[in-house]
Request: fold
Amino acid sequence: MAAKNEERRHVRHPLPGKVKVHWRTVEGHSFHSPAKCLNISRGGIRLELERAIPVGTLVNLECLQFRIAGVAHVRHCVAKGMGFVVGVEFGGGLQWTESE
Reply:
């Protein structure tokens, strides 16, 4: 049986860094939060935030360090300690590639 990480579409890279996250609720309220990157792949990023973001929410991401800026969809959000771990899948053609 294959290990769980071998079943994923893209390899996850543990990369410490800060990401700016912005989103709107269905009611129209706007939120922004700094996030800590836990890992990143070609197709998405796993973040740690102080605030929960509902699954399915469209978020805007910006991180100059990783050369990403664009939209993503929240795929999961779980409480962890005093914060939340949020997994997002890049959208709109946004992809991350390792620097040479």
About this structure: The mean pLDDT is 88. The chain has one domain: 13-90. The two ends are 33 Å apart (CA to CA).
